[in-house]
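User: Teach me something about this protein's shape.
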Amino acid sequence: MTALHGPPAREPAWPLSRSAIGLWATQGVVGTLFWGVLLVVGLQVLPTDDAPFSVLPWAGPVLLGLYALVSVGLEPWIRYRVHRWEVTGDAVYALAGWLTRTWTLVPIARIQTVDVTRGALQQAFGLATIAVLTASSQGTVRVQHLPAEVAERVAADLVRRADQVRDEAT
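Assistant: First, the predicted structure itself:
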């Protein structure tokens, strides 16, 4: 992995699959349901007449609604706009994060392993994640939520290119 003093001169060229928006929205719905169940249980169990819990009957649903608005309505779209990736002749790099932005760059010559994984939700949305690993514990770039067929083609291409670089070095 190459340490950068600031981001490269331009953002990576490619966005993730638009299906990632649906996946993130689904994750937001699941999170909202989880917190909603906890709120309902809390309203049943906790004494809402007592001072510290007296705000729960009105503040809990308001906070849950705000959480749902952000996690289902805003976050997926923001994440889609900011997550980018690219494979150039020299490196694989990705820009990820909607609150904390992370640039990761791995030179082709440093690639040791390329993994393609598909979680259960990713499979439902036809997506996959590519993990490009180096010998360094910090030298991994993950490009999440690519169309599965694109991820497989990119992974095969990266393995071929890394092998060519190794053959040229020997």
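Now, about its shape. The longest helix spans residues 19-45. The first strand starts at residue 14 and ends at 15. If you'd like, I can walk through any region in more detail.
User: That's plenty for now, thanks!
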